[in-house]
Amino acid sequence: xxxxxxxxxxxxxxxxxxxxxxxxRTLRAxxxxxxxxxxxxxxxLEAFTRNIGPHAEHYEVHAxxxxxxxxxGKPNHPYEIPLYVxxxxxxxxxxxxxxxxxxxxxLGGWVGARTAVDxxxxxASLQLLCAGGTVANPEVMQRIDSSTRQAVATDDVELTxxxxxxxxxxxxNATEELVDVRHxxxxxxxxxxxxxxxxxxxxxxxxxxxLLTPAQMAKITQPALIVWGRKNPFGDVPEAQAxxxxxxxxxxxxxxxxxxxxxxxxxxxxxxxxxxxxxKAAG
Length: 283
Known about the structure:
Blueprint: H1 3-7, E1 12-19, E2 22-29, E3 34-38, H2 49-56, E4 60-64, H3 81-94, E5 100-105, H4 107-118, E6 123-129, H5 138-153, H6 157-165, H7 176-186, H8 189-193, H9 195-198, H10 204-210, H11 214-217, E7 224-229, H12 237-246, E8 251-255, H13 262-265, H14 267-282
Parallel strand pairs: 3-4, 3-5, 5-6, 6-7, 7-8
Antiparallel strand pairs: 1-2, 2-4
Helix pairs in contact: 2-14, 3-4, 5-6, 6-7
């Protein structure tokens, strides 16, 4: 299996959209209610290639490179959550989406949840896949910061491979194709120049002022699905349980033998779960 064989069954387009002045890379496929996939810190839209096809059979799927990530534009300032939210809303406006189902992994879940709190009229439902943003754990923050900087600082592909494998319970899921995609992105000149801005949420003062609080999560009224890997290296199960308790009516699913990318590592479990949730959310 490869990215191309994952995507080939259905037509798709890969293009750029002007989202509030930010050139934004987007992969689109399918038709129906819009579902937008948001990746994690230092990630890119290829995180969802195992999910796009099955979802595009029923929905209009959008997977984007978030602000400052992948091949999307990189304004020269630190990226805090309100700026990610603005970029998401600018993208929705640019492509004519009034209300979207959001699937957010890690940072993407943090951004999706904050958007649901601050702009509830734009979010139809919310999936939080190993979502970040509820705690500030210095050890985890240092792990994210150092592993990313090391991979970006030199052209040694092994460091990129280690960074990607860090996300997975089974390293076989960090395919060489994904390693190559990420290595190329990590060594684009604008990505290298932008690394401090991209990692700003790993600084304690900045992270703390952006955290999702229980009171904020209690304001989420949209249908919410929380998916967590029991071997997630960036957050323990109690974080997921706390989100579940804070978001009334939310659904919590724990995946065994799964790290930080449940949608990728356990696509055969995740895709039908997500589609069932979306069908109920559309109700």
